Structure prediction request, 289 residues.
Amino acid sequence: MRAAASLAVSPLFPPPNRVLPSSAARIPSSTVAKPSVLLAPAAAIREPRSRSSTRAYGFSGANVSAAAQETSLAIKKKAAEILDDLKGTSIFLVGMNCTMKTDLGKILADALRYCYFDSDSLVEQAAGGVSAAKSLRKEDEKGFRDSETEVLKQLSSMGRLVVCAGDGSVQTSTNLAYLRYGVSIWVDVPLDYLANEMLTGEVSLPIPRNAPESDSFSEVLESLVQQYNELKQGFGTADTTVSLQKVASQLGCEDFTSVTPEDMGLEALKGIGRLMSVKKMMEAASKPF
Prediction:
């Protein structure tokens, strides 16, 4: 049975005094995956399909089911392999907001029997709703940022969570420190793929920053590039990276819409497994003879 977890966002409470758990120890930078290119090849960006049909590209119906079942079983197996080593350590997903990031978070939570939270949604809840959060951000930027920090503070005091973290999680040293209480994963999605998602209505930022109200692909992409440049340094501090472009290449997919959240989930679990292996080797090396 999935462990229960709750978050009282109002009133917000201070976290208990904590020592950084050994399970959240930092991994040498040489082991951290590097991000893929900023923009995807033009041929890889096609009209998005529904999530239920993404696997249908290039497969017959029987093969679709077989491929999906094989991936599902591989996810369960990999999750079982790393569960003991994780010891309840939470997972924080960072990166540009997109449906892939959200779906990936839910798949990881289900596979690990963790609870799922979206930090942006919690900030909105604490502010009194989406409209109130937008107003707060416009009228009191510091107050809004403080709310983001308070939500992360509470989430980092818990265990067995998968948190889809918003932009604010990587914009201050305080927030980055809270991410260190768990394993952080950068969900790296090409910006033109994301722009296409936004224009087709598949994704909308929970709390829009400066995205233009435009149907122009170039204007939306320009805004995303600006936002990405502000955040990429914070994204780069993540313990590991799951790249949509890399996964598509490994699977031999002709376009990114053929990659499912399950495919990304399996790659994320493999990345977590590698981190746990490095951690165990470091702990073994530190023991006296």
Q: What stands out?
A: The chain has ten helices and five strands.
